Each structure stands twice: as C-alpha cells, then as structure tokens.
Amino acid sequence: MSDIFIYPEYEVVRDRDACIGCRVCERQCANEVHRYDEVLGRMVADSTKCVNCHRCVCLCPTHALKIKKSEDCYRDNANWDYQTVNEVYRQANSGGVLLSSMGNPKPFPIYWDKILINASQVTNPPIDPLREPMETTVYLGKHNNEIERDGNGRIKNNLAPQLKLKVPVMFSAMSYGSISYNAHESLARAASELGTFYNTGEGGLHKDFYRYGANTIVQVASGRFGVYKDYLDAGAAIEIKMGQGAKPGIGGHLPGKKISASVSETRMTPQGIDAISPAPHHDIYSIEDLRQLIYSLKEATGYKKPVIVKIAAVHNCAAIASGIARSGADIIAIDGFRGGTGAAPTRIRDNVGIPIELALASIDGRLRHEGIRNNVSLIVGGSIRSAADVVKAIALGADACYIATAAVLAMGCHLCRTCNQGKCNWGIATQQPDLVKRLNPDIASKRLVNLVSAWNHEIQEIMGGMGINSIEALRGNRLMLRGVGLNETELKILGIRHAGESL
Amino acid sequence: MLKEGEIRIPAGCAISGVIDRSGKRMSGECMIKSIATMHDRSNGLGGGFAGYGIYPDFKDFYALHLFYDDTLCQAETESYLKKHFEIAYCSAIQTRKMKSITNEPIIFRYFVSPLPRKLESSHLDEQEYVEKCVMHVNVEIKGAYVFSSGKNMGIFKAVGYPEDVGEFYRLEEYAGYAWTCHGRYPTNTPGWWGGAHPFGLLNYSIVHNGEISSYDANRRYIEMFGYKCTLKTDTEVITYIFDYLLRKQKLTLREAAHVVAASFWSTIETQEPEQRDQEILLRRMFPSLLITGPFSIILGYENGLMALNDRLKLRSMVVAEKGDKAYMASEECAIRVIEPELDKIYAPAGGEPVIFELKGENVQ
Amino acid sequence: MKRIYVNEQWCLGCHLCEYECAFANSNLKEMYHLKGKSIFPKIHVEDAADGIHYAVNCRHCQEAICVKSCIAGALSRDENGMVVIDQNKCVGCYTCVLVCPFGAVMPAEGGKVAQKCELCTKNACGTPNCVAHCPNNAIVFEDRG
Questions:
Q1: Could you tell me which of A334, A335, A318 has the C-alpha nearest to residue A382?
Q2: What is the pLDDT along chain B (364 residues), one digit of tens a residue?
Q3: How far apart (Å, rounded) are the C-alpha atoms in residues A89 and A96?
Q4: Stated pTM of the model
Q5: Cβ contacts of B11 on chain A, cutoff 8 Å
Q6: Mutating which of A22, A43, A430, A442 best tests the C interface, going by the most C Cβ atoms within 10 A?
C-alpha cells in the first residue's frame, strides 16, 4: 500500500537572480531539502522535506530564500479544512497517533490580548524608571509568617526557604534530552547572569552544570529520571512535576534516537531506548500522597530548599491548587494549555486543558478567598509571550512567570514544531553532534540575557506608568486591568472590569 | 451616580495634626484654624477630625459614632448592639445647623463595652470582638455606618469644607491631647458622609492625602484577614493595614512603617547589617503590604501621632515642634497659622516615619 | 597584534566565510553580483570526514616562512606584525604557496600573482568580514599576545 501523497504545506521559494550557489542552504539543512542540480546547473529545493525552520532563510548571504504557504487546496469546506483532511490521510497512511511539538496553535481566545493596562494621569504621578528606582526583585516561597522575637526584641528570621529573583521571569522546564547540551548550558549561564532560575525538566542534570546549581531548579517527574541525592542537593529548589500544560494527563516520551550516551548517563536510562515517563506518579494517587513526596524531598534536602509543585491548567485547577497550598508546597507552578512541549499527541495538545489567564485568575482568587494565598507563591507559564503578558499575569495574581517558548525563540527556534523528529537545524531540540554545535552558548546565553533584560526594562516602564515602583505592589492588583471584548462570565472569572468602567 | 464604596474615587487632600506630649488637652478650634488655611486643597466634598483624649468620663468604653440613613436601620443596629454590648450611654451627637452642611444623616454616639458572656463565648480578644461587630454593622446593615470605634477618642466627619464640618460638630466644645484633620478634594463623587476622612478602626485613625497605586494589591491581601474594604478608599485600606501590622502582628510603629513605605532594595544594601537584615526580613514577610504611589498620612493612636510619606515623597508634608507640642501638616502655613514661633520645622524624607508620643505618666 | 582565530568546536562548515571573504575583496557592490563568478577567497574551510570543520587563513607567523622564501621581496611584515603582500612586486613564482604549512597563501584570480589574508585592511570593510559574518562566532578577531 502506498501513502496518499500530501502536498507540502510550505514551499521554498528561491530568487534565482540572487542565488550565488554558495550552497550554505544545502549544508545547513538536516532535512536535505536543498541540493545543487548538475543538469540544471543551479540550486533546487524539495519542499516536501521542508519543515519551515527558516535556517536556510536566515543563513542565505544574499537573502535569496523565503518560505511561502503553499497554494495547494482542496474544495472549500468550512468543516473539513485542509489540515483536518490531511491529518486523516496521515493516520490512514500510518495507523499511528499524530505527534506534535511546541504549544497549541489553534485559534482559541488569547485573553492576554483582551486585557488592557492602566496608567496614571493627573491625580497620581507616573514614575520615570530612568530617574527613580523601579524594583523588580521578587522572593518566591511561603510568606505565612508568625512574628517571633529574640531576647533583644529583634524579629527572628523564621521564614521558610525562598527563592530570590532579580527579574520576575524564569526559564521553565526543558529537559536535557529534549533539548541539547548547548541549549542547557545557554539557559544555565543566562539564568546565572540574570539572577533568576532555569529548570532541568525531567531529564536530570549534566555533571558539567552542577556549578550553576544556585540558579537551577531541579525537577522530579513521574519517571524520576536522573533523580538521586546529589541531584536534589545541586539545585536551589525542587519542582515536582504533576502535569504539563501541553499534555495534561499524560507522561513524557523521549524517543531513543535522542538518548545519546551523555543523555543516558544524565537520565540514568539506557542509551538509544525510548524514555517514557508514566502519566501519574505511581506513588501519588491522591493529595495526601503528594504531601508525603513533598516532605520526603524536604527531608532529603534538610528543609533548605523550597518545593514547587507544577500542575497543568485544567478545569478543576483552583481546587487542586488549594489542596497543594495546604500540602506543604512552597510554590505552585501552573502551566497553561498553550505551553510548549518537545513532543505530545496532537489531539491532547490541541484539545486538553484551559487558558493560563483563566486558571491563574481562578486559582489566585480561590487561594485568597480561603485565606491561604500566603502559603504559596504562584508561578505561571504556558505562553507568556512578552513583557506585557508578564505585567498582566502579575496583576492578575502571579508572583513570577515561566518562559520556555520565548526562550527557545531567543536562541533561534522558528517554531517549526518538529522537535520530536530530533533534527533541529538550530541545535536546540536535537542530540545530533553536528547540529548541537550550531548553538554556541556564548551567543545563545547572550541572546537570552538580552531578551529578559529587554522585558525587564519594559516591565519597569509599564509599572512606572501606573505609578507603581515595586513589582510587589503590582501583584494581584487587578484594578490596573480592564477587559475588552469579554463577556460577563469571562470578566467575572478574571476578576476585572470592562474597559470604560471606572475604578 | 454610584455612592462611595460602589466606586473607587481618587482624591487629593489637605491634612493636619497636632499633639501635646505633656498630655494637656486643647480644644478642636486650633485644628479648624489650621485646616482652614489650606482651604484650596479641599473642594467642599468632605472634611473631618479625630480627637484623642476627648471622652475622659467614658475612657473605658468604646465610643461608637454612627451614621444612619433612617430610623429603620437605626432600630436594627441598636438591637444588634444591645445583643453584643452593654450600652453605658447613648445620644445623638450635638451639631450646629449650618447653611453649608446639608443632607445630614442621623448621627448617634454610643459608649459601649462587650457583654462579658458573649465575649467569652466568641473566643476572641476584646478588640477583635469589637472589630467584628463594627464590620458586621458596616457590611450587613444597610444604611448604618460606624465611623468611629475607639476608646477615649472620636472621629467627626461630613460632606463639606473641613472648617465648616468642625463648626458643625461644635468641636470647640471638645478637648483632646491630640487632633488630626482632613480636607478632601475628590475628583468625582456625589459626596457621602461615610466617605469623608479620617477613617478609623478601634483607636487607630488615619488622615491621608494621596492616591495609592498599590490599592488593589493591598486590598486583596488584607481582605484575607477578615477585613472588608467596603468604601474602596485608600484611607480605609491603609487603616486596616496598620491595624493588622500593629495590633495583630504586634509590629512596632517603625517596623510597620518599613513595611508600608519600605526602603528601596538599593538603599537597604547600604545599611548597617543589623538594620539591613530586619528590613529585608520585613519586606520578605509582608511584600503585599508595600504601598506605592503618593501618600502622606497621619496615623493617630492612643499614645500619639505618626506622620509618614510614601518612599518617593510624592506628597508634601512638614513637621514642627514647639515645646511639648508637635505639628504635622501638608503645608507649613497650616502650622504657622496656629504657632508662628516654632523650635524647629522640617520636611521628613520619603518613607521616614516621624513619631510623637505622650510622655511619661501620660502614656495610655 | 589582533589575529583571526578559529574555534573548531563552533565551526559548522557552512563555508559562508569563503563567500564573505570573496565579496569583501571583490569590489562588488552587492553580494549577489558574485552570481556566476568563481570565487577566490583567502580563507578556506577544511572539512574532514568525521564532521570536523575548520576555517583556515593566514596566521601572520612571527617567523613567517613565506616572507623568508619570497624571491621578489613582495612579502613582508608590517609595523604591526601583519604579513602583507605587495602584488606589484610579486612575480608569481608561488614559492610562498608551496612553503606555507597552512595553505594560507594561494594564487589570486587570474593566476599571475599570489594572495593572502590581510585582515581586510586593504578593502572597504576595515575589519575582517569573515569574522563579522560567521553565524556561530567560530571565527574571532582577538589579541592573544
């Protein structure tokens, strides 16, 4: 049986006048799209192999290349669109579950873009961040302190361990294995320079990176890959991953071809064999079990590190978060349904979970209503795309944000969404040595630092405009937000008023 | 148009305060004179006063001042009060009819103490019990509003220019060791008596000039601890913050000031280790009680007055001393008009608390 | 003096440096004017079978054997230590091409004279164009003493 041919979704377009035949496109394409045709005496491209990663477009010295959406179409059908039909062909061809990478690309509402921010006029002066201090430092952890005093009447430091961030943005979990050694090094170095944290994901921590431990969050996921005492001790905080926004309710799957010798050693799983983490933690079937794991990890590390529990944003997340806040966790990380992934079943990625904006608003509201918001800090991720999203998230109630898609974009990713194939032309989501070396951490870490620094400047500008000079005074400050084009229910969940409504 | 509490109304203002640290009592006239000088800082939509030491004959009773929209809610409130308190004395607050003060509600005063059996079965301490009852009246009984609830102190406020409000309440007949006052310049409001300042809770009273940008962050945090911000004013939330920090968390005034007007991290870095550690600790413990945006406040409490500016000093405030008397006001003229010859006068830095307390045997 | 150094770890073998070098020394206005032309770059990427790539150009040796071997006095070290070639003096004997242990001196376009990297000091770039355009910072321009 031969497969039904599917015309490529994107076509490589070459400006023949500009192409000088240097063949950099050919050398840089791991998918072997480009080649020099001896008969025609010029470069040609096979678009059926193209994943639209833009590596060739970016490296072409004469800018002779571009990628265009192909014009091929089936008969118009609002119900059976082109992509839906092609997915049926693909499954009929292969009999398999469709796999995808990165975040949900479907046109669901993006609430960030329907929220507007306030600014001061007349009654309250805006503050100029170039002339006045504008504080973005934030401490994550429990704040439910009881004042105790020593013999001299001084307040005792009885606070649970906290994380200090100089910027309210951290790099969220991406495992060594799903991304490359160089990508990990870039994140680690950038986090150190920025005074923030990166997250190992569920792939363990390469020995070379233990020296960035003060800026590392080590993850404990359902597969427990790479978890042992030294690993737990190496990080500044421990994150228990209960779920991921891109694929709530299922575990991870790292294909064997991405498990190199070094990945295998770090992950403590056999080389070349798929590493599959189970959907649940098999020692956590309920909330009381989670409490036991939290305290096991705290016990193992001498109560010196905050424990983060990461959950996917699902329908009942407010109640779940409330349970977690009472279970000894110091921080809750919530991952929205648009969060990225190295590989997820397409149907899960595109149909399971809820938007982070709504999850955050309802969790923050619920915790405050129950008077336990102080028990935990909230980190949100799952498509934080800009400084404006960060400001809106903090005003809705987050303490800090996780970014990963934006971080890999900064390193060069063009969202071709084929990480699962392991042939990332940008050297990020691959373990192939010739591809990995394309990501020079000197460059990539600098780009990450640039991105987060730029966002921080923007956050400061927006805060100053509101007359706020500390990120602490922005947290949960929902009066600073207004919805536009949202219905009553949406406004109620977000806890904000509609634009045009007064204070 | 929406009433105060249904809508948040930004306002500019004038504030003034005076204390005689020797405990000698003075009539409310001086405050009227002081605030009248800053007439242009108010727009006739709210004024008020707080006097400390004004009820020596009832100093062991909580003095509840109430506004009632009608006799119906008064009856409901009084039956609630009777169930929870022994009422030692109650009467309408004496006022003077004035052309410029209109739409007055029913204004009543009660000297009360909690019913011992009720208090015991509530498992609350006395202050908390009173606070709960005050919150109940203000939130649950429509048309009734407790605007003063401390011991041996009282708040008097109305819609109008503050000097007229002072005359209306006949403040020249009261004598206290400390006074604060407030003239309001709201940007839009039909004016509601309850919305005028000072705002009080138990013995704390606050007069405030400013518009804080951290309002909703502060409000949503403090409401976790049983406070209900029904007025949506800065003054209300600031009062609750101080009540929480001073009475519930037992911080000192200076510590509380370092929470709400925390030193910048960059300043903290340069401090001596001992102070640095405490200030870092306070910021880490109460990050959501940091108040940003312009404010100048005078906090009144049983033992004295504290003046505090936001950490950037975005509102004017001067303090002065003359013998045992200490003054604080939005403008120097408001001090000079009642005491032209001063021992010293200065403008405190942003975030620097200035505290004047009763001396020696006068401490309450 | 500042020299061009190559870090093998980051060299991708994309050969862009060769084209950037050729363009820098071509007097052409646009890079796409190279279309259809053979290029004569002064930097060459060596590609080994095991995936190792290495861009090679003149090291500006202290004891430059090309300078010593030049029969026409065309090759010399300037005051900064850079090895330069005066193509007006060059007689095209190619002794230098034969003696350079790095293969960093080569015949120029037309085959009449030799050429070598002169750190883009004699063209419009001013600073080495291969360094400016290396996509992975594999080629750097540094003073390592």
A1: A335
A2: 466 666 666 666 899 999 999 999 999 999 999 999 998 888 878 899 999 999 999 999 999 999 999 999 999 999 999 999 999 999 999 999 999 888 899 999 999 999 999 999 999 999 999 999 999 999 999 999 999 999 999 999 999 999 999 999 999 999 999 999 999 877 655 567 888 889 999 999 999 998 899 999 999 999 999 898 888 888 899 999 999 999 999 999 999 999 999 999 999 999 999 999 999 999 999 999 999 999 999 999 999 999 999 999 999 999 999 999 999 999 999 999 999 999 999 999 999 999 999 987 666 5
A3: 11
A4: 0.93
A5: 123
A6: A22
Angle at B334 between CA B194 and CA B295, to 5 degrees: 55
Domain boundaries, chain C: 1-57+119-145, 60-116
Q: What residue numbers bound the domain in which B203 lies? A: 14-54+152-362
Cα B36 to the center of its chain, rounded Å: 19
Locate A452 and state its tokens: 């987060």
The second-level CATH assignment, the architecture, of C1-57+119-145 is 2-Layer Sandwich (3.30)
CA of A23, closest CA in chain C: separation in Å? 8
CB-neighbour burial class of residue A349 (10 A; exposed 0-12, middle 13-18, buried 19+): buried
- Kindly provide the ipTM of the predicted complex, given to two decimals: 0.92
Total domains, chain B: 1
Which residues 6+ apart lie within 8 Å of A171 measured at CB?
A187, A190, A191, A196, A197, A198, A199, A402, A403, A404, A407, A448
CA A395, A398, A404, A405 dihedral sign is: negative
How far are the Cα atoms of A98, B145, B159, B320 from residue B188, in angstroms, in the given order?
A: 59, 21, 13, 33
* H or E segment to which residue B34 belongs: helix B29-37
Measured CA angle at B93 (ends B92, B96), to 5 deg:
115
Token pair for A137: 């430092």
CATH class as words, domain A10-96: alpha beta
Chains that touch C (3 or more CB pairs under 8 A): A
CATH number of the domain that B355 lies in?
A: 3.60.20.10
CATH 3.20.20.70 placement within chain A:
128-143+173-498
Nearest by CB: A24 against C10, C14, C34: C14
Given CATH 3.30.390.50, say whether it is the number of domain A128-143+173-498: no
